[in-house]
Amino acid sequence: MQIESEIMLKAQTLIEALPYIRKFNGAKIIVKYGGSAMLDEELKHNVIKDVALLKLIGMKPIIVHGGGKEISKWIRLLGKEPEFVNGLRVTDEETMEVAEMVLNKVNKSLVAMMGKQGIKAVGLSGRDGKMLQVEKKFSDGKDIGYVGQVTKVNTDLLDSLIEDDYVPVIAPVGLGKEWKAYNINADDVACAVAKAIHAEKLVFLTDIEGVYIDPEDKNTLISEMNLQVAKQLIADGVVGGGMIPKLTNCIEAVESGVGRVHILDGRQEHCLLLEFLTEKGIGTAIVKEALF
Which of 17, 75, 152, 246 could covalently link to 133 via disulfide, CB atoms 3.0 to 4.6 Å apart? Predict the structure, then answer.
């Protein structure tokens, strides 16, 4: 009876996933991959397995990854201390070289992991095919070096790769004037790419469970909110710190036509599958329309 019960539970899980598989078959999905899920090897493999499964059941995922902690580690090995202004890394020429080297290493490791799951993946930088074109970004008027703000996303290369059944894996490096490389916030890249390709879903993997009305009370997690509520939370100061730019990116993406934007806890095992393929889901979803 125990064995039969477990088998039936597995069957029920598959049946529950069926309408979501049907709904999102062929949908373009952006996964912004960062936080602890990139540092823990087991979590890293679980995220890649989730993306591989989403691909195999008919979705069209694109991964955008960061690498900030790894970049800081290598900067310190060079005898320098990482410097940030309002959360943005001050990026001189030497730091930019280190960042591009580290991001390329991270990029190719993710491509290799996708390959082990039987998925064709291609690692890209925003400089490839002039994909991510940027202008110099300032922080409160302060020059912070080779830090870029995306001004244009050339989707030609992405469209071709997706059409040929590849999963693009994008490092957040852009192309500025005189063909110079610029460091870009990975959340900004994910948002810009999602808007440009009209993604159905954009997912931010983070180190928090989602958006709370009261961060001290785990019962106040907001499972789903519309644009009006999201903007009000920022205006009222309910959310603060690093959540403000993330939630702002979510709002901009939905206003630009992205179907749903999700903030998920990347530390949760198989969080992508739980959010995409189950009725309850986890984390916080931002949508355009009113809830009622």
Answer: 152
